[in-house]
């Protein structure tokens, strides 16, 4: 039986700092969104930009965890496709309780002509 590998302390600390930095970015946007007051025009612009950037992040994750270049394995994880990362993205983006599906459904109907 093999022992689980543990990270050296410096690697564990670096990993914790990296995760903390990433969460800080997301939490800053969430803080603005969750404020119980109308958004300023500047905040609307920041949030609009953050949503566009979120789309870029998701596209990049799908590209990096696709399998078009190397056959049946994820091109990043080198495990049978879909890898855990792509499967997780799929679950989150298609979860009816989350905003992505609602936004998609609300925009599936063509706008009414006036
Ligand atoms: Zn992957």
Global shape: flat
In angstroms, what is the radius of gyration? 19 Å
| Overall pLDDT metric | 85
The unreliable regions are none
User: What oligomerization state is this entry in?
Assistant: single chain
Strand residues, percent = under 5%
Tally of helical runs: 4
What's the number of domains? Answer: 1
Strand count = 0
Reported for the largest beta sheet, the result is: none
Helix content: 55-70%
The molecules bound to the chains, other than polymers, are: zinc ion
The ordered string of helix (H) and strand (E) elements is HHHH
- Class from secondary-structure proportions: mainly alpha
Distance between the termini: 71 Å
Written account of the structure:
With 114 residues, the chain is mainly α. The chain has one domain. 61% of the residues lie in helices and 0% in strands. The protein is built from four helices and no strands. The protein has helices at residues 9-34, 41-64, 84-94, 99-106. The model has no long low-confidence stretch (mean pLDDT 85). Bound molecules: zinc ion. Zinc ion binds at residues 65, 74, 76-77, 83, 85-86.
